[in-house]
Specification:
The structure holds two protein chains of two kinds.
Chain A: E1 2-7, E2 9-11, E3 34-36, H1 38-54, E4 57-63, H2 68-78, E5 82-86, H3 96-108, E6 114-118, H4 128-136, E7 140-149, E8 154-160, E9 166-172, E10 175-179, H5 191-196, E11 204-205, H6 207-210, H7 218-221, E12 224-230, E13 239-240, H8 245-259
Parallel strand pairs in A: 1-4, 1-6, 4-5, 5-11, 6-10, 7-10
Antiparallel strand pairs in A: 2-3, 7-8, 8-9
Helix pairs in contact in A: 3-4
Chain B: E1 5-8, E2 11-12, E3 15-16, H1 19-30, E4 36-42, H2 44-55, E5 60-65, H3 74-84, E6 90-94, H4 97-109, E7 113-125, E8 128-135, E9 140-147, E10 152-156, E11 172-175, H5 177-180, E12 187-193, E13 207-211, H6 221-231, E14 234-237, H7 239-243, E15 264-268, H8 274-277, E16 285-290, H9 297-300, E17 303-306, H10 309-322
Parallel strand pairs in B: 1-4, 1-6, 4-5, 5-11, 6-10, 7-10, 13-14, 13-15, 15-16, 16-17
Antiparallel strand pairs in B: 2-3, 7-8, 8-9
The chains are: A alpha/beta, B alpha/beta.
């Protein structure tokens, strides 16, 4: 099975508080810690597990700048066979459709049976997998939390639906799946693993290599453009308890007792 | 604007989803004059019931009746929708597990632009919509400029638009099943596997001590169990704790977990994503403790404390034990 996994380098929300910069044009990117998008990491782990069961290769692809390379390399250290970086000034400012267009061009240069993406990334859109599948005219399933390979023509796929229930489907290959967190336990990548792939050459392809015309992606082709970042004023919010820890706890215990929070 | 607007209606067991009421409010916000058409897919009697309810909300309801839609499958209905929705129209879809499955691909098949997970509309000017989205699990919001002049598919976050009372539409149901065409399923529904029932039913608890990513390590969960015992509540959690397999799925609060309705909800180290908040009903008294003062949970909580739960919780537990 030839598997392609699409990954994105994002600010790590477990490590950072995300704030808006002074001008409101972006988030404050000083001192941000970046990592691979959490959902994508599960997708890479799933691809590796499938390959280990049925054979084949796992290729990790990212659309981004030079810095995205570190993320591709990290996922290769997990055990992916190949990396691919799609990088071009013309890709800057792409909306979801632009990204899917770039990825589609890369998919068509390969011979993949299965494409995995994370269910969503930092912008919470959850769109690239579904857009890509439709562009390729391949079947799609979102929020996937189980994959079983039946044979080289079809797979069994579980989707996470409401209330913790799981919707089971049979799907034809090739197809695109967006992977939900919790599907597996992504393996730890140690410094040794990173070192092993440190000198591996990761091919970089631009718009011309992919046969993309100028406005196929990037700002020129985008129908969605971000205007600003802001933090909404949503009413009063919580009454914030202040003072020393001791004072806060005293107040809180009082409040909990009054509200029935201590039985 | 004069673009036709369609609203995709979710329904289950013959009942339309709350989002049916929300989407018409969203549509009117896009264009107060628009004739908004509901689209409902399904099969048989349950579909007929859903269409009747939709017709009480929308002036026109398009029905797609096909046995292949008895269990709704995005892969099956997407090509059908693409055949009946005219070019240039705007289609609104709820942003939940089915909408996320259907909508991105539908935009491609309709050759329309796509805008996911919108929480607000701020007006249309010259074919461009100004809309509000959230990023980074709701830590920041953005305004986006969206070109809907050539047609659009927009997913709308459940709960973002408040339904309006008393808008009996008396709409007519139009059968579009023939025009929608046959099913050609490349993804076939097999069955639904019900969520595992754990040894605890958090949906019945009056006091929930709920823990999130801020707990950092499985060993630290002991602190939460001790607090839950001290207050006489049950331990629940947000998604990352279940993903890490530190607690069983039956304890997860959220749209993909349990829907709870306690009297008091303690959110400890939980950022407060909309998926998590979607699982909390009945407006409990909510206390949030989080070391990030900008965590969205503080917008929903009644009382907030900015603190590291690893330090704060043991002290709180101690004090509660003393005060008994």
């Amino acid at each position: 099975m030839e598997i392609l996994v699409c990954v994105k380098r994002v600010p790590d929300t477990a490590e950072n508080e995300i704030a808006v910069n002074k001008a409101g044009t972006d988030i404050d990117r000083d001192d941000l810690v970046y990592s691979v998008n959490e959902w994508d990491n599960y997708a890479v782990e799933e691809a590796i597990q499938i390959r280990d069961k049925v054979g084949g290769t796992v290729t990790v692809v990212s659309v981004g700048d030079d810095e995205a390379e570190e993320v591709v390399r990290r996922e290769m250290a997990m055990g992916a066979d190949n990396g691919l970086l799609l990088c071009d000034d013309a890709f800057t400012g792409s909306d979801g459709k632009g990204l899917a267009t770039i990825l589609k061009a890369a998919v068509e240069k390969g011979n993949y049976d299965l494409i995995l993406t994370g269910a969503q990334a930092d912008d919470g859109a959850g769109q690239v997998g579904g857009l890509l599948a439709a562009m390729l005219d391949w079947p799609y399933a979102s929020l996937v939390n189980l994959v079983e390979i039946i044979d080289d023509k079809k797979i069994k796929v579980g989707r996470e639906i409401a209330g913790g229930n799981q919707e089971m489907n049979e799907m034809d290959l090739p197809c695109v799946l967006s992977i939900q967190t919790g599907i597996n336990e992504p393996r730890y990548v140690g410094i040794r693993g990173i070192r092993k792939v440190a000198s591996v050459e990761i091919p970089v392809k631009g718009a011309a290599d992919l046969g993309l015309v100028a406005d196929a992606a990037g700002k020129a082709g985008a129908k969605v453009n971000r205007l600003d970042y802001f933090v909404p004023e949503l009413g009063e919010g919580a009454e914030m308890l202040e003072g020393s820890t001791e004072e806060i706890i005293e107040k809180l215990v009082e409040i909990l007792k009054a509200k029935g929070g201590i039985k | 604007m004069a673009q036709q607007i369609f609203a995709y209606i979710l329904h289950k067991d013959g009942l339309v989803d709350d989002s049916a009421q929300e989407l018409i409010v969203a549509a009117r916000k896009l264009d107060p004059e628009a004739a908004v058409t509901a689209v409902v897919g399904g099969a048989g009697e349950q579909l007929a019931q859903a269409c009747q309810q939709a017709a009480a909300i929308y002036p026109e309801v398009w029905k797609i009746d096909n046995p292949a839609l008895a269990y709704i499958n995005a892969e099956v209905i997407r090509p059908m929708l693409a055949r009946i929705i005219p070019a240039g129209a705007i289609t609104l879809v709820p942003h939940e597990h089915f909408g996320m499955d259907l909508a991105p691909g539908l935009s491609i098949k309709l050759n329309a632009a796509y805008l996911p997970d919108v929480v607000g509309f701020e007006g249309v000017e010259g074919g461009r919509l100004k809309a509000v989205r959230e990023e980074f699990s709701g830590q920041v919001s953005t305004h986006v400029n969206f070109d809907l002049s050539g047609g659009a598919v927009i997913t709308v976050r459940p709960g973002a638009f408040q339904p309006q009372e008393g808008q009996a539409a008396g709409g007519q149901v139009v059968d579009k099943s023939g025009e929608a065409g046959a099913a050609e399923p490349r993804r076939r529904y097999l069955e639904t596997v019900a969520a595992e029932v754990g040894d605890v039913d958090i949906t019945k608890s009056e006091i929930l001590v709920s823990v999130g990513r801020g707990i950092e390590d499985q060993d630290n969960l002991e602190l939460i169990h001790e607090l839950a015992e001290a207050v006489g509540g049950e331990v629940s959690c947000s998604r990352p704790i279940v993903d890490a397999k530190w607690l069983e799925k039956a304890r997860q609060v959220g749209t993909s977990g349990q829907t709870v309705k306690p009297k008091v909800y303690l959110a400890l180290g939980i950022s407060g994503s909309f998926q998590h908040m979607g699982g909390i009903k009945g407006a409990p008294f909510m206390v949030a403790v989080n070391k990030n003062p900008k965590a969205p949970i503080f917008q929903s909580a009644d009382v907030g404390v900015v603190a590291d739960i690893l330090e704060f919780v043991p002290e709180l537990t101690e004090k509660i034990k003393e005060s008994r």
